[in-house]
Design goal:
Blueprint (H helix, E strand, L loop, with lengths): L2 H12 L21 H15 L10 H4 L3 H10 L2
Helix pairs in contact: 1-2
Length: about 80
């Protein structure tokens, strides 16, 4: 399963409406109408799916969770 598919699965666990495709330019807050609680729940789903923990000091959450594409890019380059 690709990173995009895994992120889409996590997204659909958190949102009340299902998202069919993961468009890189889609903004999590504005386009998908995610509030702070939904973003935290999404972060937890991502951590569980990818088996790691974000570092609140090192990781720039605002940039990482800006768009679907920025999150996938972070996950791809997270080595």
């Amino acid at each position: 399963m690709s990173i995009e598919e895994r992120v889409l699965n996590c997204l659909n666990k958190v949102l009340s409406t299902e998202v069919d495709t993961l468009e890189p330019e889609r903004k999590l807050r504005e386009d998908l109408e995610m509030d702070s609680l939904a973003l935290v729940m999404f972060q937890v789903e991502i951590e569980e799916e990818f088996r790691f923990t974000f570092d609140p000091i090192e990781d720039d959450f605002e940039k990482i969770f800006a768009t679907c594409g920025s999150l996938c890019h972070y996950l791809e380059n997270r080595g």
